Amino acid sequence: MRLICGPMATISHPAFRILLEQFGGCDEYFTEMINAGTLLTGGQFEKYYIDPAPVPGKIVWQLTGHDVQNMKEAAARLAELPGIGIDINMGCSAPDIYKYGAGISWMIKDREETIAMVKAVRSVVPAGKRLSVKLRLGDDNFTDKGFFDFCDMLVGEGVELLTLHPRTKKEKLVRPPRYSYCQQLAERYKGCVPVYLNGNVKDKASYDHAVASCPDVAGVMISRAAVQRPWIFRELVGGVALREPQGPQLDTQGAQTATGLPEALEGPLKVDMLNLAQTYIKNIQLYQPPEFWKTRLQRFFTYYSQNFKFAHYAQTQFINARDIPDLEQRLEDFFQKCPEERLKSIL
Asked: What are the tens digits of pLDDT across the range 142-167?
């Protein structure tokens, strides 16, 4: 069973992948959505979205957009980069994405337009690179026939992998995902097109439930839970021993990567949560522009804080920091007040 880190806005960047890799990592990393139009016009921040560090061979470039020609040209550029391949986002249902005509809009707009887009992207993805689609069940009035016909169209047009988040456009995370659709897809394309399951996997118990519900899926994608507990992939593979820290590492661009996390121990691993946070902050500064530091750190620490008994207090302290020095001081103060929270034992 392949383990995949899902695409998350403001999270799925090199600093986060470095953190996960230091706990053993996973099989694939989907990037946050790359806007086709912005990529083509050469936005000043686009180079940060297409940095494949630290594991170029595990990267899946997720592409979003509303225009067929832009999607084709952007896909051609991404296909030149290292990585597993390109994923077309047809699952994001955020109002600004949907109204823009991207994300889940491709499941709802005129079928011929969607076919034209998939054909266009397929035509520029070379042999040896994978074309995949991440999707939902569709609009709230979806039918089984409409959903499976849509998936048949994707497969017929050359899509080589499907990742299903089995909820509709408006269904929120509080509604249990309909795993039966993941299993039905996996059975439908068995031996032809692999299917990944996405949704509500947050620990070993929920992973076991998902896999038992969908025994024929080829992989499980995890997103938010990996931000809160970046060692989750290690837990799911049974606590495989990790690498010993080797001191500062060089990324694909030759820049020095911050290290120092406890990486390798036989048996239970104790994670120094202060060290983890400090290392992550350093790598944000190395891999993200200053304009992004605050938002990316706020998003990360929203999840990170859920590890603690006084989660609300921790979150309030961390996300309200004025700047990085203030955040670093708030972290020191928190662990002085709550020293029992500093070391977390994992498998």
From this structure: 999 999 999 999 999 999 999 999 99
Overall pTM > 0.90:
yes
Beta-strand ranges (E) seen in 38-77 are 59-64
Q: Cα 134 from chain centroid?
A: 11
Which residues, 6+ apart, have CB-to-CB distance to 321 below 8 Å? 297, 327, 330
Spatial contact of 138 and 147, defined as CB atoms under 8 Å apart: yes
Around Cβ 266, how many Cβ atoms within 10 Å? 8
Between 48 and 256, the more confident residue is 48
CB atoms within 10 A of CB 263: 17
The phi, psi pair for 172, rounded to 5°, reads -90, 175
Residue 345 and residue 278: Cα distance in Å, rounded? 18
Under the banding of pLDDT at 50, 70 and 90, the label for residue 264 is very low
Pairing of β 2-5 and β 34-35? unpaired
Coil, helix or strand for 87? Answer: strand
What does the buried/exposed string (b/e) look like for 273-297 if buried means 16 or more CB atoms within 10 Å of the residue's CB? bbebbbbbbbbbebbbeeeebbebb
CA distances from 149 to 158, 164, 189, 300 (A): 15, 15, 13, 38
Quick one: average pLDDT of 282-302? 97
